[in-house]
Amino acid sequence: MGASDKLLGGAMLGVAAFVFVYYTTWALFLPFVSPDSGLHAAFPPREWATRGPALLLLLGLAGIGAFFAKVSAAEARKKAQAGKKV
Question: With contact defined as beta carbons under 8 Å apart, do 27 and 49 qualify?
C-alpha cells in the first residue's frame, strides 16, 4: 500500500467524519439550541436537512440506473454484432 493511498484514504475518512459531525449537529442538536445563538448562522435552513439527502439519494439512484442502462445497451450491441458475424 503506497503512501498516496494512505493519504487519500485518510483525507476521505476526514471528509466523511466532518460531514457526519456537521449533519448530526444540524439535524439532531441544533433544534435544542436557542434561535438567538450565532450557531444557527453556520447552517442552512432546517427543511434542507431532509431535502438535501433526499435529492442526493434521487441523484444517486438516477446515476446507478443510467450506468446499468449504458452497460445493458453495450451488451445488447455486442450480442447483436456477434449474431451478425455468424
Answer: yes
